[in-house]
Amino acid sequence: MKISEQKIEEIRSAVDIVDIISGYVHLRKRGKNFVGLCPFHHEKTPSFTVSGEKQIYHCFGCGAGGNVFKFLMDFKNISFKEAVEEIAEYAGIKIQYEKSELTGIQKELEELYEINVFAARYFVEILNKSPDAEEARLYLKKRNIKPQTQKIFGIGFAPFGWDNFLKAAKDNGIDLNKARALGLIDINEKGEYYDKFRGRIIFPIFSPNGRVIAFGGRILVEGENVAKYLNSPESQIYSKRKSLYGLFHSKEEIRKLDKAILVEGYLDLISLYQAGIKNVVASSGTSLTEEQVQLLSRFTKNVVLLFDADVAGQKASLRSIEILLKQDFDIKIMTLPKGEDPDSFINKFGKEKFEELISSAKDIVEYQTSQYESEGKFNDPSTATMAIREIVKTLALVNDELKRSLLIKSIVKKFGLRERVIEDELKKFLDSQQGKTIPQNLKTTSSNIIYENNISSFADITNISSYEKEIIRLLYSGNENIVEYILEKISPDHFTNPDLKYLVNLVVEGYNDKNISPAYLIDKITNDRLKNFIFKLTMTEEAISQKWDEFSLNGKIEKDSLEYAIETVLNFLIYQIEQEIKSNIKIMENTKDEHLHIELLNRNKELLNEKKILLNQKVKK
Question: pTM of the entire structure?
Answer without folding.
Answer: 0.59
